[in-house]
Amino acid sequence: MAEEMPEEKEMIVEEKEEIVEIAEIAYGQGLPTVIEPNMPLFDLILEDARYKGQLLARETKLSSGVLSTVTFGFAIGFILAIVMMLLPFAIIGGV
Known about the structure:
The chain is mainly alpha-helical. The protein has helices spanning 4-27, 39-68, 70-92. The protein contains three helices and no strands. The model has no long low-confidence stretch (mean pLDDT 78).
């Protein structure tokens, strides 16, 4: 049993040394540098989002315009259909 304890202590010391080496690598490089952003990529994403927003706005305006004139268009179409059905009878003299 006395022989097992020194081996365990040696293993713990070795693990601690490895941790110290890793910590030295992580913290021993100085201040972090700032990386310049990739502006052309941001510009492409911005233009794509702007284009999609404009398409959505145009489609919304078109659909709201169409929906606001549905009843008026239906009334005009119904009247024209009735006139086209009754006009030949009025010209010929009716039955």
